């Protein structure tokens, strides 16, 4: 990988403009991946800090949005793995119930949506991420593969398995996204 800063290659990166243009989409993506508004904000801030430190490695400014998405997805997947481990430890040690769901999860008349969210959270991190990126964010398979840094075929496998598990849990009914 060419470590020459973009400024030296003649293609300057306006990091502030990139962040300003993508921050709302990143926050929306993070919310859909972790289902908690405060956690999502923290993850976006951490991902942007990582991106700022690595901004000199971005070769093409046009790839900036996908690059930021990849950083956020990577950080979120690590967070989901750690959270899942902590929930298992909490149950084993009988430390009490998990934290109360966020207000976003409790909006009026959305029992079906909450059931879907619970079912999605039971999926392995990669399956949940692939599902969220495809069905909730509307990304195509190639964009998901790029964001998750995996092959297109692997994305298809994660999507298939996620759909099978969600159908088995009766989380996908009617017009549920």
From TrEMBL:
Domain RNA polymerase sigma factor 70 region 4 type: 115-166
Keyword Transcription regulation found: yes
Limits of the RNA polymerase sigma-70 region domain: 18-84
Keywords noted in UniProt: DNA-binding, Sigma factor, Transcription, Transcription regulation
Pfam families linked to this entry: Sigma70_r2, Sigma70_r4_2
Family: Belongs to the sigma-70 factor family. ECF subfamily.
Record-linked NCBIfam families: sigma70-ECF
Descriptive protein name: Sigma-70 family RNA polymerase sigma factor
Organism (species): Archangium lansingense
Taxonomy of the source species: Bacteria, Pseudomonadati, Myxococcota, Myxococcia, Myxococcales
